[in-house]
């Protein structure tokens, strides 16, 4: 009987090996749902999204996949590449640059948001960075691009490459500041129409904001400033942030406490706004695009953003997981061919999961076994999450929200004889 059982086991192994040799159907990941929420807010915008900044968990979505004009929200990509250039020591905060005639002309055009720049004057990267984020100064943003690449066109190509690296493929970028192509004169992108504008989806804009906040969190120190003076030798230009939801500005809400990030407005884009705020110690990002824009005093984008934050605060609560925390019911993982047949696992780094207030959170593991040897702190699986009947999903993973699980202890691999003995006798 024992021999018969072992023969069956050997045949089973051969069947598995044969199965691995047969081509299998490739499972293609699903796209993010265009609308995500059981109780749609029906915001008065063309598209909207709300995510957790750290995990990318999707909390609300309204037409999130449609590319739309983004106007000056473009400047966040320019700012990201500026901070990256500083990090790579290509420039410094005190690097000085002088504007071209074209940039001077744009910066003094009162139809655009700007601080006036003067030909022959020098400006530091820090000045231009602050003017770009606070006053949404188009000339300043173009000068950052010029300082880093020497050309608006070359910098646009850098922006496109960066977006590709983030998996953003359905976007169009023509200018470094977000103005339509026709508005930047001789710096217009070649072989593009005069009316060409930068476009992204709300989903893609959220990805940009998430990378900016996570890679360079100190950007908030500038985006939260309601006012600042731009000093140009003996000239002083007062700057007021276009984000009216900041403290001391007209659309401030003490229960939301928005501290960034960027507005955007053109005739084609309408009023847009990518916002960020902390709730119960956890940072959120929202995007609204195509809100009403009757004139420069229309607060629609901020009103719709307030509704979106209010909805998230009312319908979700964050569950915080600490680094190394062991989750009950998912305390260990099986180790194949390990000296220890099971090891303890825990959260790799502090994370949060937003759970609908009327649902219980269920935690699963994407894989329940790992091959030896295993090192301490090695990622051995991913935690996935369900709330009620629904899988929680993220911006980058429509198949589920996943947080890395790491080994809290190590184990070596046993030798061949022990592995064979276990296989033979099921030990």
Give a description of the structure.
This protein has helices at residues 2-21, 75-87, 101-107, 125-134, 138-149, 152-165, 202-215, 220-223, 300-315, 416-425, and strands spanning 35-36, 47-52, 58-62, 68-69, 96-97, 123-124, 199-200, 227-232, 235-240, 258-266, 270-279, 282-291, 316-321, 332-336, 342-347, 351-356, 361-365, 369-371, 379-387, 390-391, 402-407. The radius of gyration is 26 Å and the shape is globular. The model is unreliable at 1-29 (pLDDT under 50). With 427 residues, it is of the alpha+beta class. It contains ten helices and 21 strands.
Give a summary of the structure in a few sentences.
It contains 10 helices and 21 strands. With 427 residues, the protein is of the alpha+beta class.
Flag low-confidence runs: 1-29
Radius of gyration: 26 Å
Measured as a percent range, the helix fraction is 25-40%
The shape is globular
- The number of strands is 21
The number of helical segments is 10
The chain-level mean pLDDT equals: 91
Strand content: 25-35%
Report the span from N to C terminus.
Answer: 18 Å
Ordered list of secondary-structure elements with their pairings:
Blueprint: H1 2-21, E1 35-36, E2 47-52, E3 58-62, E4 68-69, H2 75-87, E5 96-97, H3 101-107, E6 123-124, H4 125-134, H5 138-149, H6 152-165, E7 199-200, H7 202-215, H8 220-223, E8 227-232, E9 235-240, E10 258-266, E11 270-279, E12 282-291, H9 300-315, E13 316-321, E14 332-336, E15 342-347, E16 351-356, E17 361-365, E18 369-371, E19 379-387, E20 390-391, E21 402-407, H10 416-425
Parallel strand pairs: 14-18
Antiparallel strand pairs: 1-3, 2-3, 2-12, 4-7, 5-6, 8-9, 10-11, 11-12, 13-16, 14-15, 15-21, 17-19, 19-20, 19-21
Helix pairs in contact: 2-5, 2-7, 3-5, 4-5, 5-6
């Amino acid at each position: 009987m024992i021999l018969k059982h072992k023969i069956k086991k050997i045949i089973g192994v051969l069947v598995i090996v044969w199965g691995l040799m047969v081509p299998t159907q490739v499972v293609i990941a699903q796209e993010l749902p265009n609308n995500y929420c059981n109780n749609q807010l029906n915001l008065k915008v063309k598209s909207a999204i709300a995510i957790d900044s750290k995990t990318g968990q999707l909390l609300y979505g309204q037409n999130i996949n449609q590319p739309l004009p983004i106007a000056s929200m473009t400047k966040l990509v320019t700012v990201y590449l500026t901070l990256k250039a500083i990090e790579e020591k290509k420039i410094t905060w005190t690097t000085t640059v002088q504007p071209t005639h074209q940039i001077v002309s744009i910066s003094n055009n009162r139809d655009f948001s700007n601080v006036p720049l003067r030909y022959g004057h020098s400006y530091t990267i820090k000045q231009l960075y602050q003017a770009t984020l606070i006053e949404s100064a188009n000339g300043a943003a173009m000068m950052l691009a010029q300082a880093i690449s020497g050309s608006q066109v070359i910098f646009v190509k850098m922006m496109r490459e960066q977006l590709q690296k983030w998996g953003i493929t359905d976007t169009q970028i023509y200018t470094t500041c977000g103005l339509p192509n026709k508005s930047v004169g001789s710096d217009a992108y070649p072989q593009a129409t005069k009316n060409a504008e930068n476009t992204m989806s709300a989903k893609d804009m959220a990805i940009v904001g998430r990378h900016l906040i996570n890679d360079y969190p100190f950007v908030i120190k500038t985006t939260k400033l309601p006012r600042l003076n731009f000093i140009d030798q003996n000239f002083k230009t007062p700057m007021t942030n276009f984000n009216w939801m900041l403290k001391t500005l007209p659309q401030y809400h003490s229960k939301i406490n928005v501290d960034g990030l960027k507005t955007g407005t053109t005739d084609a884009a309408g009023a847009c706004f990518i916002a960020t705020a902390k709730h119960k110690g956890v940072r959120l990002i929202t995007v609204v695009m195509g809100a009403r824009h009757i004139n420069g005093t229309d607060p629609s984008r901020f009103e719709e953003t307030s509704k979106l934050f209010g909805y998230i605060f009312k319908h979700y609560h964050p569950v915080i997981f600490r680094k190394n925390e062991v989750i009950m019911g998912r305390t260990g993982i099986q180790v194949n061919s390990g000296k220890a047949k099971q090891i303890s696992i825990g959260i790799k780094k502090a994370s949060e999961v937003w759970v609908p207030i009327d649902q219980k959170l269920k935690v699963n593991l994407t894989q329940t076994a790992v091959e030896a040897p295993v090192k301490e702190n090695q990622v051995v699986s991913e935690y996935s999450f369900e709330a009620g009947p629904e899988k929680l999903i993220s911006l980058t993973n429509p198949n589920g929200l996943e947080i890395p699980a790491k080994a809290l202890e190590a184990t070596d691999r046993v030798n061949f004889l022990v592995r064979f003995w276990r296989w033979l006798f099921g030990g």
